[in-house]
Design brief:
Blueprint: H1 8-15, E1 22-25, H2 32-41, E2 46-51, H3 54-63, E3 71-75, H4 81-88, E4 93-99, H5 104-108, H6 134-140, H7 143-154, H8 159-172, H9 178-186, H10 199-210, H11 212-225, E5 227-237, H12 240-252, E6 256-258, E7 264-265, H13 268-273, E8 281-287
Parallel strand pairs: 1-2, 1-4, 2-3, 4-5
Antiparallel strand pairs: 5-8, 6-8, 7-8
Helix pairs in contact: 1-2, 7-8, 7-10, 11-12
C-alpha cells in the first residue's frame, strides 16, 4: 500500500485537525489524507470517507481500520455527500477535503483503460458498476460531440481533426483499446516534446465518462452547506478546468472567506519525491 498523498502538510495545516471534530473526505481514495488527519485529530473525531471506486475503498478500509467506528466509508460519488452526511451525523463538519486527482491504481492497471502507456479496454470509469465507458463515447458519439469534449475538457486545439480521424477509423472496425485510440490520434497529431499527442484526448474522455466537472459543480454548494461556522473546505485540483471552477465558486460565495489568496502548489522537494504532485493546486476557504 505504497501511497503518497499530495500536499499532505499543507492540507493538514489549513484543515487544523484537532480532537472532537467532524471531517468529510469526499474523495477518500486510498486513505492517505484521511489517515493523517485522523491521526492528528484523536480523540473524539470522526471521519466520513466517500469514493466512487470500490477497489480504492477496500484499500482505504484496511489503512483506516485502526480508527474503528470513528471512520465511516461509503461507496458513491461525493456529489451525493449531503444525504450521507445527514443520515450518518456529519452535518456541521469542521473540515471537508476533496482531492480530485485519479490515483496511480487507475493508471497502473491496464484493465481500467485510463492510460495509453499499456494496452487495455477503453473503460475509464471510476465506478465500474455503472455508467457509460470511453469505448461507447469513441464509437457511438458524433464527430461534433467528440470534437466538443476534446475541445472543452481537453483544451485540444486539434479537436476537429482528431474527431474526424476517429470517425473514419471506426468505420473499419470498432475502436476498443487504449493503444488503438492512441494510434489513431498519432496519425493526425504529431508528437512535440515529451507530451504524447493523445494526452489531452484521454483527459477529456476521463472527464466526460465520469462527469467530473458536473459532479464538482453540483457538489460545491452542498459541501459548503455542510460546513460548521469557521469550518474549512480544501480542494486539490490537477487541471485548469477544475481549478477555475473552484476559484470562481469560492470567490462568488458571500459566506466564504478565501484563505489561499494565491493557489498553493507543491514544493520542489515534494515534486522530486512524487511526480504526481507537480500539477496539484490547493485552494482553501472558511465558512463565515
Amino acid at each position: 500500500m505504497d501511497h503518497i498523498p499530495v500536499l499532505l502538510e499543507e492540507v493538514s495545516d489549513y484543515l487544523k485537525p484537532e480532537p472532537n471534530k467532524l471531517f468529510i473526505d469526499g474523495t477518500v481514495g486510498l486513505g492517505g489524507h484521511a489517515y493523517a488527519l485522523m491521526s492528528r485529530a484523536l480523540p473524539g473525531s470522526r471521519l466520513l470517507g466517500i469514493d466512487r471506486d470500490d477497489s480504492n475503498l477496500a484499500i482505504a478500509k484496511e489503512r483506516l481500520a485502526s480508527f474503528g467506528e470513528s471512520v465511516v466509508l461509503v461507496h458513491d460519488s461525493y456529489a451525493n455527500v449531503k444525504k450521507y452526511a445527514y443520515d450518518l451525523g456529519f452535518t456541521s463538519a469542521g473540515a471537508i477535503l476533496l482531492d480530485l486527482g485519479f490515483s496511480s491504481v487507475h493508471v497502473d492497471d491496464p484493465l481500467r483503460g485510463f492510460s495509453f502507456a499499456s494496452d487495455g479496454p477503453l473503460d475509464m470509469r471510476y465506478d465500474r458498476s455503472r455508467g457509460l465507458t470511453a469505448e461507447t463515447i469513441i464509437n457511438d458519439w458524433t464527430i461534433e460531440e467528440l470534437a466538443r469534449i476534446f475541445r472543452q475538457f481537453g483544451e485540444e486545439l486539434q479537436a476537429q481533426r482528431i474527431a474526424v480521424a476517429i470517425a473514419r477509423a471506426r468505420e473499419e472496425h470498432r475502436i476498443s483499446t487504449t493503444v488503438e485510440l492512441a494510434k489513431v490520434i498519432e496519425s493526425v497529431v504529431k508528437r512535440h516534446g515529451k507530451i504524447h499527442p493523445a494526452t489531452k484526448v484521454f483527459q477529456a474522455l476521463r472527464i466526460a465518462v465520469n462527469d467530473e466537472l458536473g459532479e464538482l459543480a453540483r457538489a460545491l454548494p452542498d459541501l459548503v452547506d455542510l460546513l460548521a461556522p469557521d469550518g474549512r473546505i480544501a480542494i486539490i485540483t490537477f487541471h485548469s478546468l477544475e481549478d477555475r471552477l473552484v476559484k470562481r465558486f469560492f470567490n462568488a460565495r458571500n459566506d466564504l472567506q478565501v484563505l489561499t489568496k494565491r493557489v498553493v502548489v507543491a514544493s520542489q522537494e515534494e515534486v522530486r519525491k512524487n511526480r504526481r504532485a507537480r500539477s496539484a493546486k490547493l485552494r482553501v476557504a472558511s465558512r463565515l
